[in-house]
Amino acid sequence: MADPELEAIRQRRMQELMAQRGGGSHQGPEQQKAQEEAKSEAEEQRQLMLTRILTSEARARLARIALVKPEKARGVEDVILRAAQTGQIVEKVSEERLISLLEQINNQTSKETKVTIRRRTSALEDD
């Protein structure tokens, strides 16, 4: 479905990463501008693909999530794009399906917190 577009985005991202590692901070202004343009173009392509995959309600919910937890929204977008690329998604993702996907991700990444309280004993206390 969107396999060539995703592959093009991956290639651009890999080129950006290689340029950052190789070039470091010795880049000229034209190289930095080209990198910024490539990033914005890749993000534009990503949003276009998400528009094709998600319903308007699901996009709105994902946008609200991105306001609060941008890294979580990015992760959900990645999962959706990968599923679309592999052919697991054949129709538009509704808000209900997005909610179930979010619940699955929350269950997988939930962290249990354990609180242990230790009381200090001092020499002045008597047992």
From TrEMBL:
Pfam families hit by this protein: dsDNA_bind
Top-rank taxon: Eukaryota
Gene3D superfamilies per the UniProt record, alphabetical: PDCD5-like (1.10.8.140)
Region feature (Disordered): 1-44
SUPFAM superfamilies assigned to the protein according to its UniProt record, in alphabetical order: Double-stranded DNA-binding domain (SSF46950)
TM spans (from-to): none
UniProt feature, compositional bias: Basic and acidic residues: 33-44
InterPro entries per the UniProt record, alphabetical: PDCD5-like (IPR002836), PDCD5-like_sf (IPR036883)
Family: Belongs to the PDCD5 family.
Protein name: DNA-binding protein-like protein isoform X1
Organism whose genome encodes this protein: Salvia divinorum
